[in-house]
Specification:
CATH superfamily of one domain in chain A: Isopropylmalate Dehydrogenase
Family (chains A, B): Belongs to the isocitrate and isopropylmalate dehydrogenases family. LeuB type 2 subfamily.
GO molecular function (chains A, B): 3-isopropylmalate dehydrogenase activity; magnesium ion binding; NAD binding
Oligomer: homodimer
Largest sheet of chain A: 10 strands, mixed
CATH architecture of one domain in chain A: 3-Layer(aba) Sandwich
Structural class of chain A: alpha/beta
Bound molecules: 3-isopropylmalic acid
Order of helices and strands of chain A: EHEHHEHEEEEHEHEHEHEEHHH
Strand content of chain A: 15-25%
Pathway (chains A, B): Amino-acid biosynthesis; L-leucine biosynthesis; L-leucine from 3-methyl-2-oxobutanoate: step 3/4
Distance between the termini of chain A: 19 Å
Number of helices of chain A: 11
Protein name (chains A, B): 3-isopropylmalate dehydrogenase
Main location (chains A, B): cytoplasm
CATH topology of one domain in chain A: Isopropylmalate Dehydrogenase
């Protein structure tokens, strides 16, 4: 019995194309001989495409992408300060537009310290947690505005929008994940200052918690959470938090676990109404683009999240095992982006 | 020529009274024999006072405090989850009310790695930076609201308010501080997502920068900044940022520099219209209150910031030198809160 899935591939800018090339290589290796076949369509999107055509993401692009089963994305963003990009916000207009339009309300960001990977922490401990970041609300909604722009009397507001509907669905998902892990859930917010949004998040967590008596629940203010990220990250299992706090915490999580080059993520629409999107947490890093020095591991691990989501956990497991084996053998060796992809693909093929 | 200043002392909750006792001890030791005399008035405020009287901060309290030259504050906040505190937000009603009413628009939070103090980072390097956190705007303004509270249709909004007036005054202050340090200023924001507030902050920094050609300026997204806090904190000199990002970054800064027990802060009204307020960054930590195990160093270092602000830099320097000497001699010894204060006060007296 064979199954074909349609994958939209957005390589994007900077190191995006390089790391996606390796992710695709690994994906091809792991589906080879399996009952899954992947039918890829390339979408040329990002700062480069904008500079060429003036388009960031057209309705036609969006419709075409939405007709796929899933999306693999590299990285988006031009050279910081490029004056030609001043009037385009590629992040809002492309990356966030995809997340919002495709209702990616679960932004899943696992963190793990790999044996042999040096952490900036003296004693990271046995770190293995996942941040469940809300993806469609909060301060990310773009509901801001400004008056008297450019004058000394300017006022610029940003509105964080939080709904019971939006909070409940992501909190529920986080509890489900906790039951598949170590049954611990930490809500991170800033309830003592952002009291309206904070009360809503706290109420929903309390309510949903009654349905999951096996899950132990605690709460941390976001500032205190950053302290524990560096003093005792092993204490965390599942963290559920809003869009902005999740953004901040997952970069920090990537850093303490030995580098943003290992941090994978999934933007999931659990309802299946829209395709989910898989991407490394890192950005386009234009300063090192084209040099074959970017670590493609985060992009490769994102394909494991993709395979899991496509209902092929055994294939996902093979990718993870190959990455684990490759990381264990790294020992500080300097390899090109392609060499890392080759090595992981070879490990997968050898284990088949 | 002698000079007397009126100091309002708010010991507060939890470990607040313990650490303030040591801060006052050190303050008394350092002004002894100097031309400065400090006339202290105690204000019993905090969760304990609220539970007794039902008052958080009355207009009479506020007026009385405002009539002082400066404020020394310990920590505010009851036992988390105390049902009797559910309807009172002591943080908003007291701490933030003081900061906002007294127009503490510069929240100054220096970070330094002391030789001999273990950092959770394997290799912290020569860390010595100061975060200039805006204190009267941003997501802290309390301009949120919610509808259909408690129902599945609830919507809870939080508004971040940013004005050219408010941003410019704190940015200008940060540039001034940079010129007294290593002439480096980093703006931290999230301009790619919070585009309205982000454009305002970036514009003001660009404009003020033209008046400070000797200061080199860069920009980091808040998520990226947390990465550098753990991978290369020595790169920072002065960071200027908004109220919420500053809150998050300074807890992280405290953690990487060897503990929030060393992190001092000043809430400054540079215009001098209102008294400035000096407080440790740490909270009331009710779990360890009354045990004499809290580190009073952050509160003591806050008195150095206070003395600086009162125009007595040589006295401030004596406090800092005594703390430096004490920290260098610590060597992991376990001392009570009072013993740390005694040791630092004795070092000051001996050096006189
Ligand atoms: C590029 C940016 C809009 C994005 C975000 O803030 O979500 C990125 O930082 C991330 O974490 O995926
Ligand atoms: C207690 C709380 C309101 C406060 C803040 O968020 O500013 C604290 O975290 C701080 O950093 O001083």
């Amino acid at each position: 019995m064979s199954r074909s899935v349609k994958l939209a591939v957005i390589r994007g800018d900077g190191i995006g194309p390089e790391v996606v090339a390796e992710a695709v290589k690994v994906l091809d290796a792991v589906v080879e001989g399996s009952e899954l076949s992947i039918d890829k369509t390339e979408f040329s999107l990002g700062a480069a495409r904008y500079l060429e055509t003036g388009d960031v993401l057209t309705d036609t692009d969006l419709e075409a992408i939405a007709a796929h089963d899933a999306i693999l994305l590299g990285a988006i963003g031009g050279v910081p300060g490029d004056p030609r990009l001043r009037d385009a916000n590629i992040e809002r207009g492309l990356l966030l537009k995809l997340r919002f339009s495709l209702d990616h309300y679960v932004n899943l960001r696992p963190t793990k310290v790999y044996p042999g990977v040096p952490s900036p922490l003296a004693n990271a401990g046995d770190v293995d947690f996942v941040v469940v970041r809300e993806g469609t609300e909060g301060p990310y909604v773009g509901n801001g505005g400004a008056i008297r722009v450019g004058t000394p009397a300017e006022v610029a507001n940003e509105v964080s929008v939080n709904t019971a509907y939006g909070v409940e669905r992501v909190v529920r998902h986080a509890f489900e994940i906790a039951t598949q892990r170590r049954n611990k859930l930490t809500l991170v917010h800033k309830t003592n200052v952002l009291t309206f949004a904070g009360k809503l998040w706290q109420r929903i967590v309390n309510e949903v918690a009654t349905e999951y008596p096996q899950v132990s629940v605690d709460y941390l203010h976001v500032d205190a959470a950053t302290i524990f990220f560096v003093t005792d990250p092993a204490r965390f299992d599942v963290i559920v938090t809003d869009n902005l706090f999740g953004d901040i915490l997952t970069d920090l999580a990537g850093a303490i676990s030995g580098g943003i080059g290992l941090a994978a993520s999934a933007n999931i629409n659990p309802d299946g109404t829209f395709p989910s999107m898989f991407e490394p947490v890192h950005g386009s890093a234009p300063d090192i683009a084209g040099k074959q020095i970017a670590d493609p591991t985060a992009a490769i691990l994102s394909t494991a999240l993709l395979l899991d989501h496509l209902g092929a956990p055994e294939l996902a497991q093979r990718v993870v095992a190959a990455v684990d084996a490759d990381i264990a053998a790294r020992n500080g060796a300097t390899r090109s982006t392609a060499q890392v992809g080759d090595a992981i693909a070879a490990l997968i093929t050898a284990a088949q």
